Amino acid sequence: MRLGIESTGKRRFRTIDGRVVERDVGEAVIECLGRRATTVVVFAERGDREVLGLHALEGLGLEVDPVNKTLREVEAILAL
User: Fold this and answer.
1) Helix, strand, coil % (nearest 5) of the chain?
2) CA of 38: how far to CAs of 57, 59, 60, 80, in Å?
3) What does the alpha-carbon distance between residue 66 and residue 3 come to, in Å, rounded to a whole number?
4) Strand 35-42 to strand 62-65: parallel, antiparallel, or no bridges (unpaired)?
5) pLDDT tens, 18-33?
6) Strand-pair partners of 11
7) What whole-number distance in Å separates Cα of residue 56 and Cα of residue 17?
């Protein structure tokens, strides 16, 4: 599937099993639970898992509830 997102460069990532892989990255507007945010996306390759990363969750104002295994709204911290 093509979404029209262009690569803005490459980054190296360490996998959970310790391997280092390089993937293209770009920027996209994402939507989840009625919220929208701009975030960095990683261009996956065959065999990669689909995940919503911490940067995306923070941008959406969401966090993972580990007990209920759901996403929930989190209060933003404002520096005054």
Assistant:
1) 10, 45, 50
2) 11, 7, 9, 24
3) 31
4) unpaired
5) 999 999 999 999 999 9
6) 23
7) 23
Question: The tokens of 18 are what?
Answer: 């310790």
Integer Cα distance of 26 and 28 in angstroms: 7
Bridge-based pairing of strands 62-65 and 20-32 is unpaired
Q: Which tokens in the block code for residue 71?
A: 């996403």
Pairwise CA distance, residues 24 & 64, whole Å: 26
Distance CA 44, CA 50 (A): 8
The tokens 């966090």 sit on which residue?
63
* Chain position carrying tokens 């280092």: 20
**How high is the pLDDT of residue 1?**
58
Could you tell me how many residues make up the chain?
80
